[in-house]
């Protein structure tokens, strides 16, 4: 009655790790670290960090954010051809990360940048997140605002 084509998806494009876009078929916790980094950025920015409409535009947005020297995105990766047809080689990009995160908490920006490293093996392990200053430093006291709320 018709043909069916199978398309592999890895969740919402704006939260998909680059290795998944390139054809990695064995997602690891590092994919989740990437997605969580996108969520943390969105919580602080009030809007999604990446708003891609296709897998190729998603990779373009990622490379603009993290920066790329040009050539193969993940040089040591040996992924099968991507179902999403995302090329492995790209032109160079300067990183926009610091500029795009300039208005958020510096500790949050640092965490997001670490969570969104291109190389999955360089992303922090989930167990280390809560040891960073974003979670260990005492937040600004709300004592100064308490009086105005009670008045």
From TrEMBL:
Name under which the protein is recorded? Protein kinase domain-containing protein
The signal peptide annotation in the UniProt record is: none
What GO molecular function terms would the record report? ATP binding; protein serine/threonine kinase activity
Q: Which residues form the Protein kinase domain?
A: 1-135
In this record, what's one Pfam family? Pkinase
Recorded hits in SUPFAM superfamilies, A to Z, give: Protein kinase-like (PK-like)
Example GO CC term: the record gives: nucleus
User: In the UniProt record, does the keyword Nucleotide-binding occur?
Assistant: yes
Q: TM spans, by residue?
A: none
Q: Which UniProt keywords apply?
A: ATP-binding, Nucleotide-binding
């Amino acid at each position: 009655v018709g043909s069916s084509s199978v398309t592999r998806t890895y969740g919402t494009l704006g939260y998909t790790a680059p290795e998944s876009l390139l054809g990695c078929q064995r997602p690891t916790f590092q994919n989740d670290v990437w997605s969580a980094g996108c969520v943390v950025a969105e919580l602080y920015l009030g809007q999604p960090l990446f708003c891609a409409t296709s897998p190729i535009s998603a990779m373009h947005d990622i490379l603009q954010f993290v920066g790329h020297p040009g050539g193969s995105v993940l040089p040591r990766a040996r992924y099968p051809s991507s179902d999403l047809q995302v090329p492995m080689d790209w032109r160079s990009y300067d990183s926009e990360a610091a500029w795009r995160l300039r208005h958020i908490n510096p500790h949050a920006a640092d965490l997001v940048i670490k969570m969104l490293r291109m190389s999955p093996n360089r992303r922090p392990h989930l167990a280390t997140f809560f040891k960073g200053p974003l979670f260990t430093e005492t937040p600004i006291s709300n004592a100064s605002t308490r009086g105005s709320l009670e008045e």
